[in-house]
């Protein structure tokens, strides 16, 4: 199994002639053409392994349109926070609280997205610019909305009702995308398990990844999709109601005021129902949850849509003397969302602290169990930057050369909180730059220490080239930065929390005392504030443009598409348990694929397997092994190389890949070997001690294989780092040992056309598959 970035079946099997054995264009198992019918010719493969490759790259980076999913980055990061909880016992009460808090925080991100779309389409475009001659004069596409033309759409309420189709289309697109991927990913059912008992694995070592329904999230994603769609539609309706209430207050229409209150009650009832659905939508992993929630999945979003139509009619109703002036009411909603998100993150941190105290093994847990809250905070920050960046950039485009919100500007611009967020962004970037400088200094210092030990790894008779030593030591030092990632995440999260609180406080003070916060300050302070605000506005806009540009380039450039796909290989391994609009989980297709293939092949042919996985492929391999029944799992040996199982997943997701879980996996399978290098920035050792005194880790492997030019390496050997482990002689030796280990005790092979319950002669030789 290949790792991040993907590898073709031809490269994995070392043969240009390959044949699909099972699967489709998205993910499939391949063999060499000569080995396609190996089971039909057992005498030709007596004692010879049959190699088979599982290619899953099209699940992540195979489609260029997936690169545009970069705009869903906040949702993906929030979903990761769900899986980063500490490794406390499953029955601990705080586990459910942690999950509920993450789901609520994910819901606020959907509301923030809908509010940002309303800010652009309803407030900036339909209310501010379309209602101001100075803004719409040079925009012909906005002419039919201008009050100067006295057209049917020139009424403020009708302009808002028409503009509401834009955020509604955004929400509808996310609903469609989530439902489309839901049908392709979350609907892959696991194979039926054979009865059997584990090898005495304690309860503490049984990870949730071994539960039969873990990779079947069809019902959960469907319920969350309905709830988040409803929340987005209700956000649009709330903005329209707020605008209608302001107009009704001026017009003094009692009938419209009563209608507005009735619609507000309907929105509140649907909002409470949505919160209840999110609160109660917990994962049931004991078995595949095949229940159907048609009342929630179908009725709830369409009920919200029907209420939105009534609100649009109410808002668009003709009101005498109605006009748009200033900004739409409800600008404080962005501040309310930010404060609520901050409170949720703090509650999540407290819950994580309680879980960490009850954790079974926290020796190497990232950030002492605070990884989930820190990542959740970053998800909120990214969501705020994207929403603020879009609003700022769009306002700058609408008002031309002027600056939104400034004196003589044609429009007031976006809410003041977005301006404060723009002002603190440069400070955050300065902190990030400072951390990057410290990381560079660390690389230099580590490189100097490591350089003294590099010559001892090679033949002392070789000529010691200082430049070569420096290059090898530098690769080792840079690879070690991965272990310092928690420090970077902690620093950014802490600064983000402080600056975010400062931005909310600054916006609140500005609303209390209109005018610039630096009025009356010295000229230097005033100039610095203006510079920070302008620079931050451009940086927020540039961040949004950068994501769009990367997505567009990846759509046209295969190399760029593959590079961006690597990000999703790591970020979308986990099921969508918190946010249904996150990019889909490819493992919910890949893990059942692997489980089905291993379970059916061993059952049909009484064979044994060596499962070989590189990088992210090793994570999929481990997840698939946990899904096998104990009898089948005991017939599989595992070979991992460049594996992040302990270095990344074990530290950041301790409840699922912590030392107890990996120990239990090793106990229940035939054997496990892991290859790693000091120069690998992703893979690392498993750090487990076997009960029989043996070892799992083989390494560190020497990299490069030769220091200088030798008889077997006449040209300088390159530093391989994370790639090409197969080029190392240790790889071939270890794989041969695992295959030989499977050989002596193999049961006899069944004929290819034998029934599932027949048994072959136990004295005949068997077959293994690598």
TrEMBL record:
<feature type="transmembrane region" description="Helical">
    <location>
        <begin position="535"/>
        <end position="555"/>
    </location>
</feature>
<feature type="transmembrane region" description="Helical">
    <location>
        <begin position="487"/>
        <end position="509"/>
    </location>
</feature>
<keyword id="KW-0812">Transmembrane</keyword>
<feature type="transmembrane region" description="Helical">
    <location>
        <begin position="299"/>
        <end position="318"/>
    </location>
</feature>
<feature type="compositionally biased region" description="Polar residues">
    <location>
        <begin position="761"/>
        <end position="770"/>
    </location>
</feature>
<keyword id="KW-0472">Membrane</keyword>
<feature type="transmembrane region" description="Helical">
    <location>
        <begin position="330"/>
        <end position="355"/>
    </location>
</feature>
<feature type="region of interest" description="Disordered">
    <location>
        <begin position="742"/>
        <end position="770"/>
    </location>
</feature>
<protein>
    <recommendedName>
        <fullName>Lipase family protein</fullName>
    </recommendedName>
</protein>
<feature type="transmembrane region" description="Helical">
    <location>
        <begin position="424"/>
        <end position="445"/>
    </location>
</feature>
<feature type="transmembrane region" description="Helical">
    <location>
        <begin position="67"/>
        <end position="85"/>
    </location>
</feature>
<feature type="transmembrane region" description="Helical">
    <location>
        <begin position="160"/>
        <end position="177"/>
    </location>
</feature>
<feature type="transmembrane region" description="Helical">
    <location>
        <begin position="251"/>
        <end position="278"/>
    </location>
</feature>
<feature type="transmembrane region" description="Helical">
    <location>
        <begin position="226"/>
        <end position="245"/>
    </location>
</feature>
<dbReference type="InterPro" id="IPR029058">
    <property type="entry name" value="AB_hydrolase_fold"/>
</dbReference>
<keyword id="KW-1133">Transmembrane helix</keyword>
<feature type="transmembrane region" description="Helical">
    <location>
        <begin position="367"/>
        <end position="391"/>
    </location>
</feature>
<feature type="transmembrane region" description="Helical">
    <location>
        <begin position="97"/>
        <end position="117"/>
    </location>
</feature>
């Amino acid at each position: 199994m290949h790792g991040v970035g993907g590898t073709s079946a031809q490269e994995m099997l070392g043969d240009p002639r390959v044949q699909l054995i099972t699967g489709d264009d998205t993910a499939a198992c391949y063999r060499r053409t000569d080995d396609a019918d190996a089971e039909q010719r057992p005498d030709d493969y007596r004692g010879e392994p049959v190699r088979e490759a599982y290619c899953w790259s099209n699940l992540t980076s195979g489609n260029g349109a997936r690169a545009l999913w970069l705009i869903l980055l906040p949702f993906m990061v929030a979903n990761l926070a769900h899986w980063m909880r500490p490794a406390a016992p499953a029955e601990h009460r705080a586990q459910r609280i942690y999950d509920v808090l993450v789901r609520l925080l994910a819901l606020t991100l959907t509301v923030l997205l809908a509010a940002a779309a309303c800010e652009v389409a309803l407030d900036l475009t339909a209310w501010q610019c379309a209602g101001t001659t100075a803004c719409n004069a040079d925009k012909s596409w906005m002419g039919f909305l201008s009050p100067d033309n006295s057209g049917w759409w020139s009424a403020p309420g009708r302009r808002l009702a028409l503009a509401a189709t834009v955020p509604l289309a955004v929400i509808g697109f996310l609903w469609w995308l989530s439902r489309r991927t839901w049908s392709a990913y979350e609907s892959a059912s696991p194979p039926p398990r054979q009865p059997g008992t584990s090898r005495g694995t304690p309860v503490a070592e049984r990870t949730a990844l071994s539960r039969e329904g873990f990779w079947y999230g069809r019902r959960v994603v469907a319920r969350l999709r309905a709830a988040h769609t409803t929340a987005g539609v209700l956000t649009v309706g709330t903005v329209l109601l707020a605008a209608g209430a302001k107009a009704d207050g001026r017009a003094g229409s009692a009938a419209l005021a009563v209608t507005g209150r009735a619609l507000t009650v309907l929105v509140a009832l649907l909002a409470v129902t949505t919160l209840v659905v999110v609160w109660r939508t917990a994962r049931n992993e004991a078995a595949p949850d095949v229940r159907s929630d048609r009342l929630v999945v179908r009725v709830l979003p369409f009920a919200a849509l029907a209420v939105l139509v009534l609100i649009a009619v109410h808002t668009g109703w003709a009101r005498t003397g109605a006009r748009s002036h200033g900004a739409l009411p409800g600008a404080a909603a962005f501040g309310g969302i930010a404060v609520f998100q901050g409170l949720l993150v703090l509650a999540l941190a407290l819950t994580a602290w309680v879980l960490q105290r009850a954790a079974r093994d926290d020796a190497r847990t990232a950030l002492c169990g605070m990884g989930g809250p820190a990542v959740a905070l970053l998800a909120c920050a990214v969501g705020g930057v994207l929403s603020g960046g879009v609003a700022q950039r769009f306002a700058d485009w609408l008002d031309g050369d002027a600056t939104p919100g400034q004196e003589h500007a044609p429009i007031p611009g976006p809410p003041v909180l977005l301006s404060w967020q723009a002002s603190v962004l440069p400070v955050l970037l300065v902190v990030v730059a400072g951390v990057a400088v410290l990381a560079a200094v660390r690389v230099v210092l580590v490189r100097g220490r490591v350089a003294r030990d590099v010559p001892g790894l090679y033949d002392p008779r070789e000529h010691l080239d200082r430049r070569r030593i420096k290059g090898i030591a530098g690769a080792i030092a840079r690879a070690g930065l991965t272990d310092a990632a928690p420090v970077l995440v902690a620093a950014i999260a802490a600064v983000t929390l402080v600056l975010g609180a400062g931005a909310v406080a600054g916006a609140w003070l500005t609303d209390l005392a209109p005018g610039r916060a630096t009025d009356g300050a010295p000229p230097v302070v005033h100039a610095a504030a203006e510079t920070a605000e302008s620079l931050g506005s451009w940086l927020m806009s540039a961040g949004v443009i950068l994501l769009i540009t990367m997505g567009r380039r990846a759509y046209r450039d295969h190399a760029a598409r593959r590079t961006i796909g690597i990000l999703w290989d790591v970020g979308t391994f986990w099921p969508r348990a918190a946010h249904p609009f996150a990019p889909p989980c490819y493992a919910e297709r890949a893990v059942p694929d692997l489980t089905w293939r291993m379970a059916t092949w061993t059952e049909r042919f009484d064979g044994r397997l060596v499962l070989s996985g590189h990088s992210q492929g090793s994570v999929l391999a481990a997840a698939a092994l946990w899904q096998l029944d104990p009898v089948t799992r005991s017939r599989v040996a595992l070979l991992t190389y460049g594996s992040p199982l302990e270095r990344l997943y074990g530290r950041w997701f301790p409840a699922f890949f912590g030392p107890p879980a990996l120990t239990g996996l090793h106990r229940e399978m035939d054997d496990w070997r892991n290859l790693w290098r000091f120069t690998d920035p992703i893979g690392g050792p498993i750090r487990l001690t076997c009960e029989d005194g043996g070892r799992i880790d083989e390494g560190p492997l020497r990299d490069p294989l030769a220091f200088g030019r030798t008889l077997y390496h006449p040209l300088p050997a390159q530093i391989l780092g994370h790639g090409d482990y197969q080029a190392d002689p240790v790889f071939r030796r270890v794989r041969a040992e695992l295959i030989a280990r499977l050989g002596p005790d193999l049961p006899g092979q069944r004929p290819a056309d034998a029934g599932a319950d027949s048994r072959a002669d136990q004295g005949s030789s068997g077959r293994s598959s690598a």
